[in-house]
Amino acid sequence: MDTAPVTAEKPKDKSQLLFEEFLNYLSVEKGLAQNTLDAYRQDLARYDSFLKKEKVSDWAKVTRTHILKFLNAESKRGLESSSIARGLVSVKLFHRFLTKERHVQSDITSVLESPKLWKKLPHFLTTQEMDSLLKTPDVKKPGGIRDLALLECLYATGMRVSEITELPLGHVYLDNKFIKCRGKGDKERLVPLGSVAVSACQTYLARVRSKMKAKTEHFFLGRSGKGLTRQFVWQMIGKYARLAGITKEITPHTFRHSFATHLLERGADLRVVQELLGHADISTTQIYTHVSGNRLKSIHAKFHPRG
User: Fold this and answer.
1) In this structure, what are the phi and psi dihedrals at residue 14, rounded to the nearest 5 degrees?
2) Which of 12, 120, 168, 303 is most open to solvent, judged by the fewest CB atoms within 10 Å of its CB?
3) Known catalytic residue: 173?
4) Half-sphere exposure (CA, 13 Å, Cβ side) for 79?
5) What are the pLDDT digits (tens) for 205-242?
6) CB atoms within 10 A of CB 224
7) Is 256 a catalytic site residue?
8) 103 catalytic, yes or no?
């Protein structure tokens, strides 16, 4: 009997094995989410490819100059500043791991810092733009009712798109007006829901979800009864932005940025916003103080004796 030839799987090189060891370490020891691990894997694959082009095959021979040249090459590829900064984080974490596991003698990245110019100000919608966008779903249709509930939740909570697509039905407490959200590193936080979002979710549950044959315990479902994908939410938001006549580039994260910005503009405490966003470090939240700088200036001018 003829049999198809068996093709041997290409063996992984030393760098690939180290990457897998590193990512496994991050997963087990640090509890990082799969999305984060995938991003680090992509960053390191590009880093490894760059070093091979530079004829560097030994990690002990990598220099700071190589890393800076890699980051410069990433910039020339047209990557966003935030993506380049994340790439540097990936590289620094990996070199720290190499040192910890004694693959190299010292961590050459210990003195490298992300330039302040990489802390790009986030895109956000004005309250008027947000109001316009939230009026676009057709609530005469089941899909529009669901979409409005999802958009209201995004704006009311500042949740990440991965958090809202994975949101279980049992984590939404409409009577108590809050959501239990599972964020990065599998950390849970409680986020309040405003009355408008609660009303939209109640309508969705009563008129749409309760009539569907749910195949999962996700709160937001597609026509098939399964959970929504992140790509679907991205496309949905883009569609409603166009209908609202908004020309800005809008993503699910724009809702998160708008949520934080609007809270701070209305006097919310930075620590409270940090807690609501699930930021481990308040320096991550502080970027929004730049966005709401006009409000701070007006308060200073109004209340300071020398304003």
Assistant:
1) -60, -40
2) 303
3) no
4) 19
5) 999 999 999 999 999 999 999 999 999 999 999 999 99
6) 10
7) yes
8) no
CA dihedral (99, 101, 102, 103) in degrees, to 10, reads -80
Q: Say yes or no to pLDDT of 2 above 50.
A: no
Dist. CA 196–CA 153, nearest whole Å = 9
**Catalytic residue chosen out of the listed positions 184, 189, 230, 295:** 184
pLDDT of residue 275: 86
Where are the alpha helices (H) located in 54-189, listed in sequence order?
64-76, 81-100, 127-134, 142-157, 161-165
Q: pLDDT band for position 123 (50/70/90)?
A: confident
% of the chain beyond a pLDDT of 90 = 51
Of 32-36, 89-93, 184-188, 264-268, highest mean pLDDT: 89-93
Query: Which residue of the set 160, 209, 218, 257 is catalytic?
Result: 160
Phi, psi of 103 (to 5 degrees): -80, -25
Nearest to 67 by CA among 132, 114, 16: 114
* Burial (0-12, 13-18, 19+ Cβ within 10 Å), 99: middle
Report the distance separating Cα 158 and Cα 252, nearest Å. Answer: 9
Query: Catalytic: 290?
Result: no
**pLDDT grade, residue 305 (50/70/90)?**
low
Torsion angles phi and psi, residue 9, rounded to 5: -65, 135
66 is catalytic: no
Q: Which CATH fold would you assign to the domain 15-118?
A: DNA polymerase; domain 1 (1.10.150)
- Averaged pLDDT score across all residues of the chain: 85
pLDDT score for 120: 54
Helix (H) or strand (E) holding 234: helix 230-243
Answer yes or no: 135 catalytic. no
Residue type, 117: L
CA 227/CA 242 separation, integer angstroms: 25
Give the CATH fold of the 127-300 domain.
hpI Integrase; Chain A (1.10.443)
